Amino acid sequence: MSVRLTYFAGYGLAEQTRWLLAYAKVPFSQRALASFSQFDELRNDRSLLFKQLPLLEIDGLKVTQSQAMVRYVARKYFGAVGDDVWVRSDMIAEACKDCRLGMVKWPFSSSKDVHIKEFVPPLISKWFPLLDPLAEIKDDSEITYAHVLIAEMVYEYDLMFESKGLPSPSTEFKNLKDLTAKITATPQMVEYLNSDKRFPFPAEGERCDAYVENVEVVLGRR
Ligand SMILES: N[C@@H](CCC(=O)N[C@@H](CS)C(=O)NCC(=O)O)C(=O)O
């Protein structure tokens, strides 16, 4: 089995798939593009259905569109569950996609202060109270791919607020906090989060600037 993820050197639209692969203990390699010519080659050799990243390759199958990637990995590597659980998980996954927009946009915001004080809080106050009851787990066997996505989102937002010396948004949401702690404490997630596959949080300053530069160069904007 060969699994490869192609994206930039950062989280963006690829991190959910990285977490799902890591949680499901699926070995994967990744390719962080560094130049426009690498991206252009993929656009021209038809690897990218819509000429966009990220790209997930599994045994020759080329999957793009981050949410199609997430669902494909979920279907292939997470256990079989009934239709009701699948549909609920898919709905939660869409909510996570919407809520984590503040994460995806963070590196590109011209003012991190405005972003964290004005753009992100409405996302948190809309989605966290709705997701909190859905994050309650009585037994580990209840964990679905959607729970891993919730944990990913909560974890990244906590890192974002921490990077600005602000209290973690998850503090007030017991189920979100407990679920995130549970998932990130599993041996496979500890391994992933400490591996060189996990990119550091793009904190304001050099790290963020380097990520933005990477994206702009690869997309041919600089
Ligand atoms: N709906 C797509 C959006 C993908 C997307 O916007 N990718 C950006 C990079 S994060 C891209 O490749 N932009 C280049 C382009 O659209 O030409 C997804 O979720 O994967």
From TrEMBL:
Pfam families: GST_N (PF02798). It comes from the Eukaryota. GO terms for molecular function: glutathione transferase activity. PROSITE patterns: GST_NTER. InterPro entries: Glutathione-S-Trfase_C_sf (IPR036282), Glutathione_S-Trfase_N (IPR004045), GST_superfamily (IPR050213), Thioredoxin-like_sf (IPR036249). GO terms for biological process: glutathione metabolic process. PANTHER family: GLUTATHIONE S-TRANSFERASE. This is GST N-terminal domain-containing protein. It comes from Triparma laevis f. longispina. The lineage of its organism: Eukaryota, Sar, Stramenopiles, Ochrophyta, Bolidophyceae.
